[in-house]
Automatic annotation (TrEMBL):
Residues 43-65 are annotated as: Disordered. It comes from the Bacteria. This is DUF1918 domain-containing protein. Residues 1-57 form the DUF1918 domain. InterPro entries: DUF1918 (IPR015035). It comes from Streptomyces dengpaensis.
């Protein structure tokens, strides 16, 4: 998994009825775009994430397609 600053990180809900959490990557802390990432979520929460299998990266150039 690789990302750049400005990409979206989407953590999919793990159980029925749980909403996805969407955040903007504000810092890439790993080498060459690899995790961990500092993410600011839509609810204002900010944290460091090491994405798991329930996570997807939406690259800036994909969001406009």
């Amino acid at each position: 998994m690789r990302a750049t600053v400005g990409d979206q990180l989407v953590q999919h809900g793990r159980v029925v009825g749980q909403h996805d959490k969407v955040g903007k990557i504000t810092e890439v802390m790993g080498a060459e775009g690899t995790p961990p990432y500092r993410v600011k979520f839509e609810d204002g929460h900010e944290g460091v994430c090491s994405p798991g299998p329930d996570t997807e990266i939406r690259h800036q150039n994909q969001k406009n397609k």
